[in-house]
Amino acid sequence: MASASLQFFAFILALFGVFGDITATLLPNWKVNADVGSNIITAITQMQGLWMDCTWYSTGMFSCTLKYSVLSLPIYIQAARTTMVLSCILSAFGICITTVGMKCTKLGGDADSKSHACFAGGVCFILAGIFGLIPTSWYTREIISNFLDQTIPESSKHEPGGAVYIGFISAGFLLIAGVIFCTSCFKKQQGAWIHPPKQHHFPAAEQESNTGYNLKDYV
């Protein structure tokens, strides 16, 4: 079974994954387009996210516009919204469940209950990592395909922003944490199967002697 320190390390990774997941979901820089004009004053950086589009000017001004219409958005953005929100919810559930099931805590009851809680929390982390990895991969694929498309003008092409990289890293942290928690519970159950509880057996000669002694008593 994994030690308490290894579970604590996995819990720290999961915390970083949760915070990164939430940050990536809210950040507006999923893709970035930088256009620099002939004058430095006209330099702007346009950023697009899941919930808003922002523009940063070289003069220091910053403006954002929320995406109110859901049906007008591309399908990959709609899917990214849904899966990222599910990833945040599952990872939050995983944090709550593993807090109860970790060995270093006094919650959760006996060892079997804590083991089941750790396994359930690990499954939540793995699902959260998968749900976080799908939109980031799909979003990156769309950015790269549009960037390589010769029919799209240069001014309309974008590059992956910081939120995409944060999403990838957070998904990796959640997947690693989930595997560690699930493996710790599996090893405990496997150890119980390999080393069953010992049973005390009396020697056959002793049983025969006891039987003979009992028969003599009735003679």
UniProtKB/TrEMBL annotation:
Annotated InterPro entries: Claudin (IPR006187), Claudin_CS (IPR017974), PMP22/EMP/MP20/Claudin (IPR004031)
Entry membrane topology: Multi-pass membrane protein
PANTHER family tied to this protein: CLAUDIN (PTHR12002)
One function term, GO molecular function aspect: structural molecule activity
Subcellular location: Cell junction, Tight junction; Cell membrane
Function text: Claudins function as major constituents of the tight junction complexes that regulate the permeability of epithelia.
First and last residue of the signal peptide: 1-20
Organism of origin: Psophia crepitans (common trumpeter)
Regions crossing the membrane: 75-97, 117-139, 163-186
Protein name: Claudin
Protein family membership: Belongs to the claudin family.
Keywords, in A-Z order: Cell junction, Cell membrane, Membrane, Signal, Tight junction, Transmembrane, Transmembrane helix
GO CC aspect terms: bicellular tight junction; plasma membrane
Superkingdom classification of source: Eukaryota
Keyword RNA-binding: no
